[in-house]
Every structure is written in C-alpha cells, then in structure tokens.
C-alpha cells in the first residue's frame, strides 16, 4: 500500500457482500433489500475506530449514487445513512457519480484507488 494512502476500515469483505441473498436486488435499486444487506454486513466493531479517527469532527457523509445496468445501486446510500445514524453525523444525498470508473469485478482497494468524479444534483442534508 502507498504511504500517502489513508487508512481504510473494512466493514465486510467484498465476497460476503456479493454473496448476500439480497445483494442483486439492492444493487438494482431495491432500498429494502439494501437495508437488510447493510444491517447484516455492517461491522459494529469498526464504528469505534472510525469515531476515534474523526476526533470530534462532524463531517457530512456523502454516498455515491452509481447508475448500474440494472438501475441505481441502493447500497451506498443506505450504508451512508446507517453510518450517519450510528455516528450521529449529518448525511447528504443528491450527490451523483459523473463518470464511469469501471469497478465491476474490482476489489475494495482498487475501488478506493479509482475514485469517481462527483457532482451535486439536488442536495438535502439530514442529521440523524
């Protein structure tokens, strides 16, 4: 790993998420399937190291809405909402991905290394 690359806290392995019975529906835009997937794969043990990393800062969590062949992936939005609620942070929706980054089949680190360009659609901020 590069020395200038930030620390990463993994909540679940990519294979655990992709093998979840609700993964395909959630990736295709089914919000209820995404809620179940996130509830069953989020790693509560990673919340305290994340809280410590934040050091009292209150960043707004932003999820990336990626348009998939099947629809708009609901997983990032639901995951950001779950983190915001667990950590007492504000959450903004309405930020959309403006480019194609080719993450299909990529591992977690490749996904972090190839970041999407983002643009604001209609921003609404929520505090959980």
Q: How far is the N terminus from the C terminus?
A: 34 Å
Physical arrangement of strands within the biggest beta sheet = 1-4-5
Radius of gyration: 14 Å
Question: Tally of extended strands?
Answer: 5
DSSP helix count? 6
Uncertain ranges: none
Mean pLDDT, as a whole number? 82
As a percent range, the share of helical residues equals: 25-40%
Q: Beta fraction of the residues?
A: 15-25%
Q: Give the number of domains.
A: 1
Structural notes for this entry:
There is one protein chain. The protein is an alpha+beta fold and 128 residues long. It has one domain. It has six helices and five strands; from the N terminus they run ααααβββαβαβ. The strands form two sheets. Strands 1-4-5 form a three-stranded mixed β-sheet. A hairpin with a 2-residue loop joins strand 2 (67-68) and strand 3. The chain starts with 13 loop residues before the first helix and ends with a strand. The model has no long low-confidence stretch (mean pLDDT 82).
Question: Which SSEs are present, and which pair or pack?
Answer:
Elements: H1 14-18, H2 23-27, H3 31-41, H4 47-54, E1 61-62, E2 67-68, E3 71-72, H5 75-87, E4 90-97, H6 108-113, E5 118-127
Parallel strand pairs: 1-4
Antiparallel strand pairs: 2-3, 4-5
Helix pairs in contact: 3-5
């Amino acid at each position: 790993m590069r020395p200038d690359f930030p620390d990463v806290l993994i909540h679940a392995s990519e294979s655990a998420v992709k093998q979840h019975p609700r993964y395909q529906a959630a990736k295709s835009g089914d919000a209820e399937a995404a809620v179940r997937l996130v509830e069953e794969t989020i790693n509560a043990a990673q919340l305290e190291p994340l809280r410590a990393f934040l050091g009292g800062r209150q960043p707004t969590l932003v999820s990336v809405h990626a348009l998939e062949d099947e629809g708009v992936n609901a997983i990032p939005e639901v995951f950001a909402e779950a983190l915001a609620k667990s950590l007492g942070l504000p959450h903004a929706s309405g930020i959309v991905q403006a480019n194609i980054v080719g993450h299909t089949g990529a591992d977690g680190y490749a996904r972090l290394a190839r970041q999407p360009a983002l643009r604001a659609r209609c921003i609404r901020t929520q505090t959980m």
